[in-house]
Amino acid sequence: MLEPSDELVKETFWQDIFKSLRKDRMAVAGGIVIALFILMAIFAPWIAPHDPYAVSLDLQFQKPSAEYWLGTDMFGRDVFSRMIYGSRISLLIGIVPSLITMSIGIVLGIVAGYFGRRTDFVIMTISDMVLSFPSLLLAMVVMYTLGASLLNIFIALSIVGWAGTARVVRAQTLSLKNKEFVEASRAIGVKPIVIMLRHILPNCIPQLLVLFTLEIPGSILSEASLSFLGVGAQPPASSWGLMVSNGKEFLFNAPWVAISPGIAILLIVLAFNFLGDGLRDALDPYLKQ
């Protein structure tokens, strides 16, 4: 159980971060945009004005109007409704692989940094091998091997993304494992797993928060790239990347089909990057000074 003074310090630390974030207008704007997209994804059935999967060839390439705010696509489907439902898949692909990569990277990074020697050598060698391949190319190889599906996208992006997180956590672990509080815990016989979970991992959380906010837009862009190349989300799904891929052939005749989801990708990526920059500034003591 924490002492009152410890609770006060912990509360003040997080309050200081929120105060710093509130002063950063770009971070606040990014947080608002992210919240709006999340709400749009959650309440998609109630927000979408039309059925996103309803095909009507009589309504092909309708221009934006009062009834169809962003026009219709090559099958007469409402682009705005498909964008709303597409936010579910795009955000899911952004968040789930990021959580998986962060989990794998945290475990391997702490183990490598704490135990060192042969364990560190093996894990970092594998990490270097993963980082030596272009991430998109490696993801494409995995997708072509496993097949195009939502689950395989999670697997591909998780295989590609864990190495960077592992290196960051390893660096933090190396700087913390020789600190006095870790040495004291080791001296009184505390098990390594307890030291890693109770003393090292909590001190890595600020850096991991920043890394997580930057990992999500990377996953969204990777999914959009894979869908654009034909190995991402598959019909009848309506991810933003797939919508851009389907609309690229009609860019000059019906530009709204591809431009609208492209703008959505741009907004969500910028929002997460602005929020990540704000978190980095709030957590960096040198920037505060």
Shape, per Cα inertia axes: elongated
Question: In this structure, how is the largest beta sheet organized?
Answer: none
What share of the residues does DSSP label as strand, in percent? under 5%
Instruction: Provide the helix percentage.
Output: over 70%
CATH topology: MetI-like fold
CATH architecture: Orthogonal Bundle
Question: Which structural class fits the helix and strand makeup?
Answer: mainly alpha
At the first level of CATH, the class is: Mainly Alpha
List SSEs in N-to-C order. HHHHHHHHHHHH
| Overall pLDDT | 83
Spans of at least 5 consecutive residues whose pLDDT stays below 50 are none
Distance between the termini: 33 Å
* The CATH homologous superfamily: MetI-like
Count of DSSP E strands?
0
Number of domains: 1
Number of helices: 12
Task: State Rg.
Answer: 22 Å
Subcellular location: Cell membrane
Domain ABC transmembrane type-1: 87-276
Keywords: Cell membrane, Membrane, Transmembrane, Transmembrane helix, Transport
Transmembrane segments: 27-48, 89-114, 121-144, 150-169, 250-275
Write up what this structure looks like.
This is ABC transporter permease. It is found in: Cell membrane. Belongs to the binding-protein-dependent transport system permease family. It is a multi-pass membrane protein. The structure is a single chain. This protein is mainly alpha-helical and about 290 residues long. It has twelve helices and no strands. The protein has helices spanning about 5-25, 25-40, 45, 80-115, 115-130, 135-145, 150-175, 180-185, 190-230, 240-245, 255-285, 285-289. Helix 8 (about 180-185) packs across helix 9 (about 190-230). The longest helix is centred in the middle third of the chain and has 37 residues, at about 80-115. The model has no long low-confidence stretch (mean pLDDT about 85).
